[in-house]
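Task card 7
Instruction: Convert sequence to structure tokens.
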Amino acid sequence: MMLFRFCLYGFLKNQQYYDPFLILAFRQKGLSFGMIGVLIGFRAICINLMEIPSGAVADVVGRRRSMMASFVAYIGSFAVFGLCEPVWALFVAMLLFSIGEAFRTGTHKAMIFQWLEHEGRLSEKTAVYGHTRSWSQLGSAVSVVIATILVFSTEQYSAVFLYCIIPYVLGIVNFMGYPSYLDGSQAGDEEPKSIRRMLFASVSQALGNRPLRGLLLESMGYDGLYGSTKDYVQPIIKAACLSLPVMVALGDHFSLADRQRVAIGVGVVYFTLYLLSSVASAGAGRFAARMGGDERSARVLWAATLGLFAVMAAGIFAGLTAMTVVTFVLLAVFHNLWRPVLVSRVASHADPAQTATILSIDSQASSLFLAVVAPLLGWSVDWITSYGEQLRFLPVAGLGIFVAGVMVLRGRRTKERRVDVTSAENP
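Output:
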């Protein structure tokens, strides 16, 4: 029953009908890519400020209540995004969204791991987390269909925010059925000293433990890279829908408006993306086993990611929009193999009593990367557009090649050090 509830949480949480149209919604409101980057960076900064304390609060005052508070903040954010136009209001919405993210990220994963420990199934953590994540991706696939219908019928990108409120209310109802022991061993002790003690102990463990420190660096690179680049596929799909002969012919034949064509194109791409991502998440355990363990799996994924960004750059230079879109889809698939592997690696090194806080630190590292890079990437896209519309998304590919290249080299050096240490211990 609990596995069903965990899967239902992921399914409902990913009913984010705005997601495939987020950049397009901001562009409809008149924002430049630079300002969009500032908004995304602001969101990441807010998450950074609240992320670790929220994880500590979840471990101390109760994870269920933290999750409910998270969904209430999300609902407020959706209402503001859907009803307001001024830039200052969008910053308020981003702040509310950040509160929702901060109280959610890491907390639900810790609840899953505590349930596994309670059931004596902790060895299945990669497979179980991958299974629940696959339902999240399935939820995203369903949400794309609904979002496509909404945009097609309304021809407005921002209206979809309001419809997200319904599944999030249902998500709060789902949390009410979680057993009390999932609140964590510290639940009920709400003294500020207990929160500070949990926070400092977790930070000390994360920074003092060399394997955990390395994992946080990897998380900052992979998740931060994916988070700062993934939404740029939306304007690329839009350009394809308005220029590719097959889409133009389709629109003329059925008398479709531009936004209706874009809705269809975005819907098809994102539906495919989320279905493949769901399959990838469900198979994360098998992938890790086939690759020879979580550590080797991570190195393979970094190398594959480097190759994909190189292909993306080639597609941008050649003007092959379809190739660029395909690379974004494959990057999403790789990311959904990466997350279960990464979370399993973190859980293997973290103290179970501090898991939510450690995973919140993990998310904060990614948010820090995003806060710095997102505005710079947005401004770079605006700037390079003056040299040619075809090249405007080249900074996205360049960033991916740089970050993935650095991590591939780091992984090789780490492997070499391990070989040297093993050789020294076994002369």
